[in-house]
Amino acid sequence: MENNFIGLKKILLKRRAKLMSALKKRKYEKRDIRHGDDMDQAESAYEQEMSYIFGGRESEEIKAINEALDRIDKGTYGICENCDEMIGMKRLEAMPFVKYCVNCQEDIERKKEIETVLTSSWDEDNNGGS
Ligand SMILES: [Zn+2]
Q: What is the pLDDT of residue 3?
């Protein structure tokens, strides 16, 4: 069983290295942008915003990968954090950093949607009422 996870661990490490180098590369690019003083201000602000958005997503993924590697070391990898059922190998191969089985993931996403709807209508009520 553990042999299966060695392959996934390699994939996770490779993916993390790729994300890290992408983040580093973007930092250098950002420095270059700041260097040129002819650069239109609006454009460089846009660039910064974009790198912030993508950087954020990559950091999130790195975090998820670190957690997955941690679980491999602890021996809890491949077990759903919500219901303690085994996550299918096919699912792990497709998304090695998942924490939940398909059923729980769907549940969580459904709840998130409800939460988003609730908070957005809450905001509307708060902003509109005066
Ligand atoms: Zn589950």
A: 56
